[in-house]
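Need a sequence for this fold. Nothing fancy.
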């Protein structure tokens, strides 16, 4: 009760000071209190001058961590002071916060951290270590954890002979917050009458231990000794002498025990020899016996006082080797033969290792390799090397090779190996080999067909390893099973395993397999590609996964394919298949395909690829192309036939029928109407001549007759035709038609024989002289002249041209002396002829040749037979008049 009044007085004084100075807005008392676990806590919150008179202590609220403390625990001391009581405080550490609440808002004023704990227990288990003239360190235990700040004080006191603590006997003390404390030099006198006491104290109380007497000889710890040398004695094998120095900072005139620890570098276990010395001996030596020959040893030393319980630390380690002797075991020798040179030469890679015999052969200085042809030992050659590998270039003969290791004491026994000749065929003794793994081991088993073979070599190396020297091997005797720790193999790596039988000094043919000590799914999947696309099928191909990414043996491939918007399908093939045909696909459809490669640990898919099936197969295209091709070929043949047989087709389909409209036998007046006439007239010296004097001529001879025969026959027929025409002017045959157009008379004679005299293949020109007397001589083959290109228009244009010819007789008519006149070829005339030949008789008198050619009128070139019959119509009016 009295303490509460004291706290209230302090708070009131503090609040008054705060009000006077107006330094702080609020404060909390006590600040950072430490209380006993489970006790009651009382705190005060004091408002500053800033919060009065608007806000006072009635506005203060309290929170424990984030929880609001109930109002019944509050107490209003005055307008500026509010207190709170928290019963049974069990938190190790908690925050109590003081808020002011005004107009519905909370504002933090101040907070404090409260700890709860326990008073200290009595310290115990006091122990000390004394480093002579350096340091005295003591340790103890404090009991249970107080959870409060505790201070420990170590007292060093003196006891009398009766064991009582003398008054004012406290020599020194040290303070610490931990369970250890040290006295340092020079405050470290040596005395066997000391006792040590520890006192623990915190806000809740204190506790002190008993004063424990400790003799300094019992707690002394030396510095580690120093090894001066380790030597071997000449001529004495298996012995080393160790010499070391005793530390100087030790209690004088006492006995010590020292331990020498040694071990060889090929072993993990150590041996210890103990020797007793006195502190007066500054240097101590010890002989280590029973050691291995040619073996390196490591040695260290430590010491302790006879009455002390603390050993010194081990000295710094030193090494030395015992006396050497010649290696007693031959090396472990193996070979790899490469047939990579022409003419039977090969490279033999020799590899060897030292056998792990105990004791080891000491320090090897080098290796001697000797080799010679099996049939000629005199050709022996020697190589010296410090490495454990060498390449020998050998020819096709069989060789004997030996390897020995040597050191300063001598050579080891020789390891001998035979290299077969190139033409030897080693026998096959191993029938089968299998591998499997257990939790810790890799096991290889094989079956031999020769029971008398008892020695084998197991060789293994990574599949992707190309260096022959990076290979491992082991000799196996009297067993067909080999076991090895799985740790010597890499996981997910393929190894080549081979078993070689040995019989005598020869090596039989090996049996090789591949093995994984551990598998996982492939690192990547195969990439799909399309090879042959069809309408309903496709060939999917892929490449093997690289060996470094398989991580196991590939067991199968699975092809997953899915049409656009459809269900995914799959097909599985064996591991040796790298292409597969997918059938029953939809035509003209896009598919997505990917391939999964699987091993015993799982599968991995490659990147997807899309493809689209064809709309038509090759067979479909062929079935379509064959009829089209045959049709085109047929049309092409028909077209070629038409070209080659054009004239034959013309004669069959369109026979040569003379066109009567192409012949003019009468003079047509210039002003005569021609609208409805298909006939033409010509005017000769203002006289009109009827068609009685002109007949349409037909072919006299076929085109195939020779020119001379045509001329002879035609002359005969012309004479007959001429006489018949002249005498028959008055007698018109029943086939002739008389047409009257005004005062003009036109005769058509379609079947008169004179027409036969003018063949399309042999054109002629008939002069205007006496028809009877000159016809025979006129029908003489004329010289060929330039071709005349003809222009033909429709019938109306032809009639108009005829009228123009009548008006301008002397200007427009073709003149006989100039037969080279050319006209344009009209492409619209179906059967137009491009050339016309005019024949001029060489027997005509000169005046007939030179006189003006007015009387005979030659029709223009376009007035031909519409179907291609080339002929000339003659104006015979002049002839009749002349005679």
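Here you go.
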């Amino acid at each position: 009760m009295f303490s509460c009044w004291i706290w209230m007085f302090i708070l009131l004084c503090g609040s008054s000071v705060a009000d006077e100075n107006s330094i702080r807005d609020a404060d909390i008392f006590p600040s950072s209190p430490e209380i006993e676990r489970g006790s009651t806590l009382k705190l005060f919150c004091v408002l500053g001058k800033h919060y009065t008179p608007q806000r006072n202590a009635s506005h203060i609220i309290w929170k424990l961590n984030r929880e609001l403390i109930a109002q019944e625990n509050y107490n209003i001391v005055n307008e500026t002071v509010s207190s709170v009581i928290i019963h049974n405080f069990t938190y190790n550490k908690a925050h109590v916060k003081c808020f002011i609440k005004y107009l519905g808002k909370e504002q933090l004023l101040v907070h404090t951290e409260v700890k709860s704990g326990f008073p200290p227990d009595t310290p115990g288990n006091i122990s000390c270590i004394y480093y002579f003239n350096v340091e005295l360190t003591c340790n103890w235990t404090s009991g249970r954890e107080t959870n409060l700040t505790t201070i420990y004080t170590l007292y060093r006191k003196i006891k009398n002979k009766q064991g009582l603590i003398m008054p004012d006997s406290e020599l020194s003390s040290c303070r610490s917050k931990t369970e250890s404390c040290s006295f340092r030099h020079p405050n470290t006198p040596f005395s066997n009458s000391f006792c040590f006491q520890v006192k623990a104290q915190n806000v809740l109380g204190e506790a002190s231990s008993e004063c424990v007497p400790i003799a300094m000889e019992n707690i002394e710890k030396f510095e580690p000794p120093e090894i001066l040398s380790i030597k071997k004695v000449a001529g004495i094998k298996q012995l080393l002498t160790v010499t070391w120095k005793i530390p100087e900072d030790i209690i004088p005139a006492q006995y010590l025990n020292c331990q020498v620890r040694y071990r060889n570098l090929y072993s993990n276990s150590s041996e210890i020899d103990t020797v007793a010395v006195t502190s007066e001996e500054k240097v101590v030596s010890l002989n280590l016996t029973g050691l291995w020959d040619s073996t390196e040893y490591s040695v260290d030393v430590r010491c302790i006082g006879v009455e002390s319980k603390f050993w010194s630390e081990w000295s710094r380690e030193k090494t030395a080797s015992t006396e050497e002797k010649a290696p007693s075991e031959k090396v472990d020798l193996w070979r790899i033969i490469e047939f990579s040179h022409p003419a039977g030469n090969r490279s033999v890679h020799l590899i060897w290792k030292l056998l792990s015999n105990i004791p080891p052969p000491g320090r090897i200085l080098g290796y001697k390799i000797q080799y010679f042809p099996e049939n000629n030992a005199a050709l022996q050659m020697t190589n010296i090397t410090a490495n454990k590998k060498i390449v020998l270039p050998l020819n096709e003969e069989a060789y004997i090779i030996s390897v020995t290791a040597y050191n300063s004491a001598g050579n080891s026994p020789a390891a001998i190996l035979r290299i077969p000749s190139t033409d030897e065929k080693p026998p096959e003794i191993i029938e089968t080999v299998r591998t499997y793994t257990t939790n810790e081991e890799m096991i290889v088993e094989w079956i031999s067909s020769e029971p008398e073979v008892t020695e084998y070599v197991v060789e293994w190396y990574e599949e992707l390893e190309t260096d022959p020297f990076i290979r491992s091997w082991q000799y196996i005797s009297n067993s067909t099973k080999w076991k090895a720790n799985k740790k010597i193999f890499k996981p997910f790596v393929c190894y080549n395993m081979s078993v070689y039988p040995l019989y005598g000094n020869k090596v039989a043919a090996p049996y090789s397999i591949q093995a994984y000590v551990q598998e996982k799914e492939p690192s990547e999947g195969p990439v799909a590609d399309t090879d042959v696309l069809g309408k309903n099928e496709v060939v999917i191909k892929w490449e093997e996964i690289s060996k470094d990414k398989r991580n196991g043996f590939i067991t199968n491939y699975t092809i997953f394919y899915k049409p656009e918007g459809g269900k995914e399908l799959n097909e599985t093939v064996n591991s040796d298949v790298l292409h597969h045909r997918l059938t029953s696909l939809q035509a003209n459809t896009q598919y997505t395909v990917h391939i999964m490669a699987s091993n015993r640990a799982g599968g991995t898919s490659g990147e997807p690829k899309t493809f689209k099936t064809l709309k038509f197969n090759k067979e479909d295209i062929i079935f379509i192309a064959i009829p089209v091709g045959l049709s085109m070929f047929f049309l092409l043949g028909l077209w070629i036939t038409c070209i080659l047989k054009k004239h034959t087709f013309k004669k069959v389909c369109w026979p040569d029928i003379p066109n009567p409209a192409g012949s003019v036998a009468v003079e047509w007046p210039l002003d005569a109407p021609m609208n409805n006439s298909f006939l033409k007239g010509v005017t000769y010296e203002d006289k009109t001549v009827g068609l009685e004097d002109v007949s349409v001529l037909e072919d006299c001879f076929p085109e195939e007759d020779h020119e001379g025969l045509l001329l002879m026959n035609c002359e005969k027929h012309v004479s007959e035709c001429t006489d018949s025409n002249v005498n028959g002017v008055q007698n018109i045959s029943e086939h002739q038609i008389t047409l009257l157009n005004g005062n003009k008379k036109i005769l058509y004679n379609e079947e008169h024989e004179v027409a036969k005299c003018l063949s399309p293949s042999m054109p002629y020109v008939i002069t205007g002289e006496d028809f009877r007397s000159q016809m025979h001589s006129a029908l003489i083959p004329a010289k060929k002249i330039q071709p005349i290109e003809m222009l033909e228009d429709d019938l109306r244009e032809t009639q108009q041209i005829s009228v123009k010819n009548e008006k301008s007789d002397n200007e427009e008519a073709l003149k006989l002396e100039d037969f080279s006149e050319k006209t344009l070829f009209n492409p619209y005339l179906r059967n137009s002829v491009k050339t016309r030949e005019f024949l001029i008789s060489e027997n005509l008198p000169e005046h007939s040749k030179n006189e003006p050619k007015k009387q005979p009128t030659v029709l223009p070139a376009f007035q031909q037979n519409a179907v291609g019959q080339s002929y000339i119509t003659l104006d015979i009016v002049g002839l009749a008049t002349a005679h």
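For context: Confidence is low (pLDDT under 50) at residues 14-23, 665-795, 801-883.
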